[in-house]
Amino acid sequence: MANGAGALSTATSSRSPELIKGLGLFDSTMLVAGSMIGSGIFIVSADIARQVQSPGLLLVVWVATGVMTMIGALSYGELAAAMPKAGGQYVYLRESLGPLWGFLYGWTMLLVIQTATISAVAIAFSKFTGVMFPFFSAQGWIWKFGTFGPWTFWFGALGPYNVGLNTQNLLAIASIVLLTWLNTRGLRVGSIVQNIFTVAKTGTLAALAALGVFFATDAARSGNFSGFWRNAGLHTMHAYPPVQSTWMIGTVSLVAVAMVGSLFSSDAWNNITFTAAEVKNPSRNLPLSLVLGSGLVTGLYLLVNFTYLRVLPLMGDPAGLTPIARGIQYAAQDRVATAVAEVVFGPAGAVVMAVAILISGFGCNNGLILSGARIYYAMAKDGLFFEPVAKVNKHHAPAAALVIQGIWCSVLCLSGTYGQLLDFLIFAVLIFYILTLGGLFVLRVKRPEMPRPYRAFGYPVLPLIYIAMAIFIEVQLLRYKPQYTWPGLIIVILGVPVYWIWKWRAEAGSGDGEGRETVA
To answer: Which residues contact 162 (CB under 8 A, 6 or more apart)?
Structure first.
């Protein structure tokens, strides 16, 4: 390897087709924005509101998330322009910290981060379909294998998990299968689908944000803006399960813990780096698309949350009979955006918003599926995954990687709900963002000669701010939500012995000298 961390064999074939450069600046920006905008922005503000219980702190959570997202995008631009290769963040970790850390990232992406995100978005897609077609329901069991848990560990309880096939996760799986098949037809097909859906859902977000300008309710104005910073001091936070114990938690810690949902909703801005080998003029287009796409979505997210506060009171009654009575905190099934549309336009508005969210979730998953498979393709190229995954089909798409990803996503759809899949993600995601930005500093020292067409804006101050914020959030999650943290950490650690097994296989296989070359 170029960083001297060791040599791994790479399966290659001179006659096999390769990835092709087919993404321009517009396509790349749409992939960034489209991968970020899923179902989260329409849902997670309800849970955040229940935690912070303050209109001001709700916006602070989203502002802090936006700051981290933009710093991350500005910093990743340097890595993306310097190493425009398939696999993106996997490559950055491999080159800066060594192949073990790259593998652990790819391993965690396959088992939890990328695939559980795809599954969660697919389940949310099915959930909103149920607004119009009640046939699709988590209670509509076709086959139920059983209920597992809850299990009690030192970090808390996991479960219960209802494992089986119901009409809701059947539709989720069908959407994953369809999008996986579309992306096996080649990058151009996938990017066309992505552009269409991203333009549609960006327009939807902009329209939703506009509702806050033209429509407002007296209940929201008096309830949210007369005491905008109320409850911004110490809070009582419940452990999990809630009956066990409580803590007094300070405002900064509360905001950090509440950012789980907003960070999830703003994640995937880095997915364009996975497709870097297919981006035209990557030294220019990768940094630009990261900043443009992330900036667009961050701004829209803030405006949408302002709309929520203009139309719905933050505080509500879970037994309320109207969207106004239930407020942001207790919007039906947490569908805050649908509640806003219902207040403004009546019952028809709820249906229109549900359709818009379906479009958003479908387009988001297309971007996640398209980009995620490139990580496993890059790992296989390094001899750290099944050899067939290192090949592309006649459409220049990594079909084997797409299929493996799709199968595991479908399995995850059978095993949990939207919330259960979300729980395990953010702690693991932040671990690798911290490591990757740490790698930015390492590469500046170890490889000063590396061509850097774009240098990270605000270096070293902004990357250090991101790392400090992320570490603080991780510490607070370990303190107050250990059930969110330990499962993800255990999955990362389990990748260590798997890495050594794959490395041994790769080194043993390289001895035959047939059809392989060594990356040094």
So the answer is: 144, 147
- Residue 249 is predicted with a pLDDT of 65
pLDDT at position 519 is 32
**Residue showing tokens 């098949």:** 181
Give the containing element (helix H, strand E) for 352: helix 347-381
Whether residue 160 has a cis bond before it, omega within 30° of 0: yes
Longest CA–CA span in the chain (Å) reads 76
CA dihedral in degrees (135, 136, 139, 140; nearest 10)?
A: 60
What is the DSSP track for 424-483? THHHHHHHHHHHHHHHHHHHHHH-TTS--SS--TTTTHHHHHHHHHHHHHHHHHHHH-HH
Structure tokens belonging to residue 229: 């910073």
Specify whether the CB–CB gap between 221 and 209 falls below 8 A.
Answer: no
pTM, two decimals, is 0.88
Q: Where are the beta strands (DSSP E) in 84-234?
A: 141-148, 151-153, 156-158, 161-166
* 435/35 Cα distance (integer angstroms): 22
For residue 416, which of 166, 136, 238, 133 has the smallest C-alpha distance? 166
Closest to 112 measured CA to CA, from 383, 437, 423, 480: 423
Q: Closest by alpha carbon to 502, among 374, 372, 387, 375?
A: 387
pLDDT of residue 478: 87
Q: Distance (Å, rounded) from C-alpha 216 to C-alpha 394?
A: 54
> What is d(CA 106, CA 287) in angstroms, rounded to the nearest whole number?
22
DSSP string covering 224-265, please? HHTTTTTT-S-EEEE-SSTTS-EEEE-HHHHHHHHHHHHHHH
Instruction: Give me 368's structure tokens.
Output: 């996640």
| Mean per-residue pLDDT pooled into runs of 10, the chain (520 residues) | 38 57 91 91 93 94 97 96 93 95 94 89 86 87 84 76 88 96 92 92 92 92 89 56 49 90 92 92 94 96 97 94 95 91 91 87 92 94 91 93 96 73 77 96 95 94 97 90 81 93 79 40
Measured between its terminal Cα atoms, the distance across the chain in Å is 4
| 336 Cβ contact list (under 8 Å, min separation 6) | 42, 43, 45, 46, 308, 312, 328
Query: Is the preceding peptide bond at 241 cis, omega within 30 degrees of 0?
Result: yes
